[in-house]
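tool_call: predict_structure(chain=1)
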Amino acid sequence: MVHTFRLAAFAHILILDMNRIYVTDSLTKVSIMGKESIIVGQVWPDKITEDLLQNLRTDSKSDIKFALVTDTNLGRLYLNEFIESFEKERSRIKSKDVLLTYEILPGETSKSSDTVAAIHGWLADNGCTKDSVVIALGGGVCGDM
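tool_result:
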């Protein structure tokens, strides 16, 4: 399941809950408040990176910083595949968008204000703005943060 939210601090928050990705033959878009913002189906990873790079743009001329946050368990399993897919799509459409990655420790102990502050500091240090897209790869702690 892919959830997207628009927040004041950042243009978009995307939560990829690896426990709830449903594999189907086609993609289904679910309308929330008049906008098809949830995609259900086999979306990992090429459809996600394609959608990110082509559709989450506040200004067609600006380069976007995508900031992916995950835990070290999911990072080990999915991060390289996501990065490869992102770079392949970025190259295909000749985009200068940037993918940044940040890994936190897994488990409930990471669900703290210190972790949130560290993530916010990392975002600021890397020049992320309201036009950046924050991607939470994983449910649980990453999705809750």
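agent: The chain has one domain: 2-144. Proceeding to next step.
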